[in-house]
């Protein structure tokens, strides 16, 4: 049940990421057209909007990468054929990612509060829009890595024939 909930969350994040990347095309295209053709005037707010969207794209992408095991994992040693060693290898990665996620969440809250008292220059948007991505991503890194840790432990238990 937890896995289905997390998979649903990842699906929502993937749809959101797709929409944001599509939306990112608009201000970037406006910047390119304005700077190189002169057809439309140079709008300065497009730079800020592109930056805001890009920050969200990067943070959501990093969260999805943690879920898919495609990020934050440098394989120095090959996967072991021994289930216990494999569990230890994977656990180290998951616990480190979870620890960094916890730090990003903890310190990101103050960072988001700091962003909440600032406004962007051109759009006059509250910078909480981008600063909240740090604790958001950190929390999801932590949750996903702890789930992956529990999943790795279940795989280890099933390989040893241990039942609940």
Explain this structure to me?
The chain is mostly helical. It has one domain (2-160). The protein is built from 5 helices and no strands. Helix 1 (2-36) packs antiparallel against helix 2 (45-68). The longest helix has 35 residues, at 2-36. The chain starts with a helix and ends with a helix. Keywords: Cell inner membrane, Cell membrane, Membrane, Transmembrane, Transmembrane helix, Transport. The chain crosses the membrane at residues 12-34, 49-67, 87-109, 129-150. InterPro entries: DctQ, TRAP_DctQ.
Secondary structure blueprint with pairings:
Elements lengths: L1 H35 L8 H24 L14 H34 L11 H4 L1 H28 L4
Helix pairs in contact: 1-2, 2-5, 3-5
Which H/E pattern describes the elements? HHHHH
Beta-strand content: under 5%
Query: Could you give a short account of the major beta sheet?
Result: none
Portion of residues in helices?
A: over 70%
Average pLDDT score? 91
CA gyration radius, whole angstroms: 20 Å
Number of helices: 5
- Gap between N and C termini, in Å? 17 Å
Which key features would you list for this structure?
elongated, transport, 164 residues, 76% helix, 0% strand, TRAP transporter small permease protein, mainly alpha, 5 helices
